[in-house]
Amino acid sequence: MSFFSRFVQHSVKGQKNFERARSAEEREEYAKAKEFFELSVDAYDHYLAQQRDKGKQPFPSHLVMAGIGYVRLGRNEDALSVLDECIRRKEIPDAYLHAGYAAAKLGRKDSAIAYWEAYPAWVEQPVIHEALREVLNSLRQDQSSLDDACLVMAQAIHRQDKDNAKLRKGTPDQHTIPANRGY
Q: CA-based angle 147:87:27, to the nearest 5?
């Protein structure tokens, strides 16, 4: 750790490590992604505590990044807490997607269905929309378990990320977060 790193805000550390983790996931370096998610979540834990102590509200984009990190690390209760707060304040599609995943992992079928049903239709993510349609139909008809639904959704998110990466190649603005995701 360098001398100047102590002056970097926790929200910035959280965001940078989140972006590094997502990039590592795209490269299928999952051990590295987990390390970066751990760093990101640690920074967001400090940031969220600071904001609460000051009586301020964290930015919704920070809440969704923290929530996704929590989900990736299996901290599903924490994920639902911050993602619910994010959803109350702003319609960010990934918040619905990951809140549904966290609820499903906790065995809360009705909550998972509600989050996934609320996933915005305006989002240009066809792979995710198709997977959601299939998962919601099978859950409503009791044809699959919540773990199976989570697996299908995780695979769909991965495929959609791959498709988004292909679309971004060759564009001048190659961000890790594709357009029309609500951030």
A: 55
Q: How far is CA 49 from the centre of its chain?
A: 20
Per-residue pLDDT tens over the stretch 147-169: 999 999 999 999 998 888 887 77
Q: Which two tokens stand for residue 172?
A: 């001048």
pTM of the model: 0.86
| 168-177 confidence digits (pLDDT tens) | 776 555 555 5
54-63, long-range: CB < 8 A, 24+ apart: 57/89, 58/11, 59/11, 60/86, 60/89, 60/90, 60/92, 60/95, 61/92, 61/183, 62/11, 62/14, 62/15, 63/89, 63/95
Helix axes of 93-105 and 109-117: crossing angle, nearest 10 degrees: 170
